[in-house]
Design brief:
alpha/beta, 2 domains, 13 helices, about 20% strand, binds ligand C2E, binds magnesium ion
Length: about 290
Amino acid sequence: MRNADTAMYHAKEHGRNNVQYFTSALNAAASERLELENDLHQALRNNQLHLHYQPQIRAHDGKVFGVEALARWRHPVLGDIPPLKFIPIAEESGLIEALGGWVMEEACRQLSAWRAQGVEGIRMAVNLSAQQLREPGLVQNVDTLLKRHGLKGSDLELEITESVAMGNPERAIVQLQGLRNIGIQLAIDDFGTGYSSLAYLKRLPIQVLKLDRTFVRDIETDPSDAEISAATLALAHNLGLKVTAEGVETEAQRDYLIQHQCDFMQGFLFSKPLPAEEALKFILER
Ligand code: C2E
Ligand code: MG
Ligand code: MG
């Protein structure tokens, strides 16, 4: 029965109406997942999580205008676990509210510490998951948090993915409008990888589209990715939105994006996500 249950869980993950056979590999994956879930509980309690900050560069003058906070988990036995592995576990197990709350708190604390060290005008971007957007107290909590750290709404940018925004657009619009009312900047993350209703996109109170790195990656080699990037930039600008290009790794990508009026860029060409002290150094140097 337990094995059948595992196979059913797997089938559900692949959407409705399909059949999955149980294999021992499934069992191994399921128990690894369960172990990680338990460890993640511990990690939250025992300060095993920390944040790295990736600089975001303003295209026209090359200055740092913000950083994106990215969660990191150093597991005591397994070492670094990538967020693409532990964030989904946190989302499925309900841990994401605690984890996301911690990320937001830590990011605000860090920004306010940098301010005290003389850093001006840097905005902090934080990723928001589907569950967090559903929390009824979200706007109030963020407002309280900002006040506690002496920050303004405009110091914070919240990123939600396309699928989160489009999953239940009417509800998303209400929550996002609440965040907007306290001055928070809103961005759609990984734009172009999910599916967007352009009718809703126009109604979402957002300011920024983040062009997904899969398009940026092949700008030099795949003419359709170059076209998609250029078209997304044009679409966004026509809607009065700014664009941050993700995953900029080469000078040719950067030049193409600048040529097409990209507003902000983020990627290894400029900097990887950095621990707080190194991020501060980078900001001060740029
Ligand atoms: P994201 O929000 O789209 O973050 C950008 C990801 O691209 C980061 O991966 C970053 O390290 C990576 N990246 C940046 N520049 C480059 C580049 O030039 N080349 C390549 N190949 N990659 C680049 P990371 O840190 O592994 O995070 C992966 C995803 O995990 C994030 O994607 C985000 O969706 C999620 N995530 C991370 N931290 C949090 C968090 O605190 N809360 C939530 N809800 N999700 C998070
Ligand atoms: Mg992001
Ligand atoms: Mg992204």
